[in-house]
Amino acid sequence: MSDFKNARILVLGASTGIGYECAKHFCHQGAQVCIASSNGEKIHAACESIGAMHGNFPSVFQVDLSDSQSVDRFIEALNESHHLDFDRVVLNAGGPPYYADSLDIPESIWLKHFQSLFLSQIKIVQALVPKMKERRFGRFVLIGSSGMTAPIPGLCISNAIRSAMHAWLKSVSDELSPFNININTVIPGKIATARLEQIEAATADRLGISKEQYREKVQTSIPSKKYGRAEDIVNAVAFLMNKEASSYITGSAIRVDGGLIRSLQG
Ligand SMILES: NC(=O)c1ccc[n+]([C@@H]2O[C@H](COP(=O)([O-])OP(=O)(O)OC[C@H]3O[C@@H](n4cnc5c(N)ncnc54)[C@H](OP(=O)(O)O)[C@@H]3O)[C@@H](O)[C@H]2O)c1
């Protein structure tokens, strides 16, 4: 039997890309999945599309992770419908925008993404940990970025906030581990999603080349010579959420990058 049959799984940022593929996978495995994102139309469409594939429809929530009050309402709604009782959570959100000049980033933009990628994720973990402690089991997986290890030009907000988030995660993992609650990061390299297309377009524009030229240049620089698929991330997430396979892994990070990151550490 699948480790995820009847598991209670929450996936944030689940309307498209990596979050969507995670939700689809866990629904297929027979889990009770809740999905959330900020755009009501998109998240309902994701639910319909997943349900139509496997007959297991996820529950849908709308939350703007960049808005603290919206997150409070979300937690309230999760309490009413599910008593904040989840055993596995994918912490995910939309990536911050591209800025060619890092010193041009206004404070309001920093605050918005700090809320979304840092404070809201922490608030959700805080809300869900008590039930996990009671049950003495839990798995959190954060979707990070290769910029945490090797800062990506133009993505200063992502590089900085995700590094801070990983430091928080490592700190809190000490406190959660005695309760068999593990928290880890998956680090995507270049994964073919809508998000990557946006980054490609912005960077190609800055370099004055076409998107296709830029894509070829990037893919050539990756040891595996190709972009990854969202399913490649799902495999790592599923491993880190498995009860037995990853039981001794916490406060850690797994790169899924086709060899992209050129460093020994991190
Ligand atoms: N793809 C890559 O190569 C890559 C590489 C490194 C890191 N990452 C990071 O991994 C994460 C997922 O990437 P992806 O490629 O799957 O991106 P994506 O396709 O753009 O998906 C982002 C998801 O987050 C949701 N979202 C955006 N803003 C939100 C908000 N304020 N509140 C709640 N949900 C929000 C989006 O749905 P709504 O629009 O409905 O809210 C969507 O479901 C991103 O943070 C990205 O930066 C991706």
From TrEMBL:
**Entry's family note:** Belongs to the short-chain dehydrogenases/reductases (SDR) family.
Which PANTHER family does this UniProt record tie to the protein?
3-OXOACYL-(ACYL-CARRIER-PROTEIN) REDUCTASE (PTHR42879), NADPH-DEPENDENT REDUCTASE BACG (PTHR42879:SF6)
Coiled-coil regions listed? none
Instruction: Give the species.
Output: Paludibacterium purpuratum
The record's listing under InterPro entries reads: NAD(P)-bd_dom_sf, SDR, SDR_fam
A Pfam family of the record is adh_short_C2
Q: What is this protein identified as? A: 3-oxoacyl-[acyl-carrier protein] reductase
Task: Spell out the Gene3D superfamilies in the cross-references.
Answer: NAD(P)-binding Rossmann-like Domain (3.40.50.720)
